[in-house]
Every structure is written in structure tokens, then in C-alpha cells.
Amino acid sequence: AIDKKGENVKVLDLSELSGFTDYFMICSGTSDRQVQSIGEAVSNVMDVNGYELLSAEGFQEGRWVLMDFGDVIVHVFLDALRDYYDLENLWKDAPKVRIPPEFYGPGASHLN
Q1: Which of 15, 32, 36, 93 makes the best surface tag, with the fewest CB within 10 Å?
Q2: Beta-strand pair 23-29/72-78
Q3: End-to-end CA distance of the chain, in Å?
Q4: Cα 85 → chain centroid
Q5: Contacts of 39 (CB under 8 A, 6+ apart)
């Protein structure tokens, strides 16, 4: 997601709070094409690393791409929809996983 200039990338640890997944990865894109591109890139990286995509929604519209990899659920939003659904606040009790600085390239958003 960071490589595709996903903004405000967050990883929430839901392992103690949820029975359906261990982690949410949430990020934003600034256009429908960028949201789609981020989703495709994340799906490719997860596949290469042995994670099976169980289901996906929203690729066609590019407003909110939702991908379920079992232990990890990925949400890629347009900014306005991310603010509207506010998953970070909904899961505010979930600890945030620190993203190591080496994952950020030049120009990437460092808001985590």
C-alpha cells in the first residue's frame, strides 16, 4: 500500500477483540484508480507471501476495496468514505501495530 502511495496507513491488532480476524490494515487513496491500484498491489504481495484471498469487494467502483485474507482484512478507502465509516474509531480499543520506518519510501505518508 505504501509503495502505491497509500495514505495514512494503519494496522490494528484485533486478535484479542475479534473472532473473525487478527488484523485490519486500513489506508486511503485519493482517487478511485489509486484505490484500485493499492488493492491490486496488496493482493499481489499477499499472494506472493502465501495468503489466500478469500473474498474481495469494491474493486469495480474503487471507492472502498475490502479484501479478506482470513487473518488479515484489508480496507482501502477514498478519503471521504474512510472518514464516514471511521473504522479506527469503531475499533479504538485495538492496539495499533507500529509500521517500521524502512517500509516508508520518500514521499510516503508517515501518519501512523
Answers
A1: 93
A2: parallel
A3: 13
A4: 14
A5: 56, 58, 59, 65, 67, 74, 76
C-alpha closest to that of 77 among 43, 36, 109: 36
Q: What is the pLDDT along the chain (112 residues), one digit of tens a residue?
A: 999 999 999 999 999 999 999 999 999 999 999 999 999 999 999 999 999 999 999 999 999 999 999 999 999 999 999 999 999 999 999 999 998 887 776 555 544 4
What is the 3 state secondary structure string of the chain?
A: CCCCCCEEEEEEECCCCCCCCCEEEEEEECCHHHHHHHHHHHHHHHHHCCCCCCEEECCCCCCEEEEECCCEEEEEEEHHHHHHHCHHHHCCCCCECCCCHHHCCCCCCCCC
Residue with grid cell 509500521, as numbered in its chain: 99
Amino acid identity at 107: G
Beta bridge partners of 74: 25, 67
